[in-house]
Amino acid sequence: MLKDYLNELTASYGLLYIKLHQFHWYVKGSSFFTLHEKFEELYDGTTEDLDLVAERLLQIGGNPVSTLGEFIQYSWIKEAPYTAEIAPIDMVKTIKADYELLNYKLTDGLDIAKEEDDEVTIDMIIGFKTGIEKTLWMLNAYLA
Questions:
Q1: Which of 24, 56, 97, 126 is most enclosed, with most CB atoms within 10 A?
Q2: How confident is the model at residue 100 (pLDDT cuts 50, 70, 90)?
Q3: pLDDT exceeding 90 applies to what percent of the chain?
Q4: 105-144: buried (b, 16+ CB within 10 Å) or exposed (e) per residue?
Q5: CB within 8 A of 21, min separation 6: which ones?
Q6: pLDDT exceeds cutoff 90 at 80
Q7: Domains and their CATH numbers in the chain
Q8: For residue 6, what is the DSSP state?
């Protein structure tokens, strides 16, 4: 069901936002300036996408999840408490894996939106995929 899917997407964007903030705060080393700025750019974009999904859900009569507990419960992305120092390269690898998962799940969302003949949601998801695929390209280039 589309509403359930959009709630999972809301939760996933919410958790990704938190994880990007965490890495933004904790990144250290010679790539600090590059990654500190990039993580901020990514969480700003994630905030915009989170808002779009939640508002779309409201438009179609749903109730978006909106608490940290719900984000954890419904997200495809897993939280990662910062209990030990993480190398900047590992932060990038973690974020890359999260974006890959999100991109994969967006394909599922396209199928669900098509089944429910929801052209607005289809268009929104295609826009998300476009941005995520560009981000993945950049993350892969950074890791090369």
A1: 56
A2: very high
A3: 97
A4: bbeebeebbeeeebeebbebbeebbeebeebbeebeebee
A5: 39, 43
A6: no
A7: 2-143 (1.20.1260.10)
A8: H
